[in-house]
Every structure is written in structure tokens, then in C-alpha cells.
Write a structure and sequence with these properties.
Strand content: 25-35%
Number of strands: 4
CATH architecture: 2-Layer Sandwich
CATH topology: Alpha-Beta Plaits
Low-confidence stretches: none
Number of domains: 1
Strand order of the largest sheet: 2-3-1-4
Distance between the termini: 27 Å
Radius of gyration: 16 Å
Structural class: alpha+beta
Length: 115
């Protein structure tokens, strides 16, 4: 995977359950439309109004093709409408990152092992 689309969401903290539903819906939609879903991350401790989504692609061209498929996907359109209707996303930012080869995933050593 050459690039990862890093999406930073500013969300309504009183609609965390609705955002959780929105993010869970993408687990079916994103892979079907051509993205490799790395994951969605919701607030747990500390800041309560920021969430992240990470989706990987082979290239920016693959991302653009994914966006076109997403716009024509009925479930994708429905999920976008759900978020707009609930007004749960206050702001959204996208950044494209290049993965450092071999850095994902690197698990912690088991207890008692030396790194």
C-alpha cells in the first residue's frame, strides 16, 4: 500500500453513538469500493470530539477511482446522508500519507523478551 488517506473528524461529542454507527457502516462499504480500511478510531479518553479514519490505497489514482465508486454506491450515499441528517460531523480534514515500509504493523515484544 503506497498511500494512506488519514481523515480527521471533528464530531459532535453528544453523538458519539451515531458516529460509531456511521464508522461501522464503512467497514462494509470501503472494501467493496476498493479501499483497504486500516481502521476507524473514536474518542475514548481525553479529547472527546476528535475521531480518525485511515484508508489505504496503491496510489492517488486508485483513491480517485474509489471515490467515483463510492459516489455511485447506494449504501455509501446512504451513509453520507445519515451523517448529514444527524449533523454528527462538524469538520473533516483529509491528509495523504506515505507509509514507511516495514513499519506497519510492528508488535510489542512479549513480556520477558528483549527488544
Amino acid at each position: 500500500m503506497a498511500i494512506t488517506c488519514f481523515i480527521r473528524y471533528e464530531i459532535d461529542p453528544f453523538q458519539l453513538d451515531a458516529f460509531r454507527e456511521y464508522a461501522n457502516n464503512w467497514r462494509r462499504i470501503i472494501p467493496r469500493c476498493g479501499g483497504d480500511l486500516v481502521g476507524y478510531f473514536l474518542p475514548h479518553e481525553g479529547t472527546n470530539n476528535v475521531a480518525w479514519g485511515l484508508i489505504a490505497f496503491e496510489s492517488l489514482a486508485a483513491y480517485e477511482a474509489y471515490r467515483a465508486r463510492l459516489r455511485s454506491d447506494p449504501e455509501g450515499r446512504s451513509n453520507f446522508a445519515f451523517a448529514q441528517e444527524k449533523r454528527l460531523i462538524l469538520r473533516e480534514e483529509r491528509t495523504f500519507l506515505e507509509s514507511l515500509g516495514g513499519s506497519l504493523p510492528v508488535a510489542a515484544p512479549c513480556q520477558g523478551e528483549r527488544a
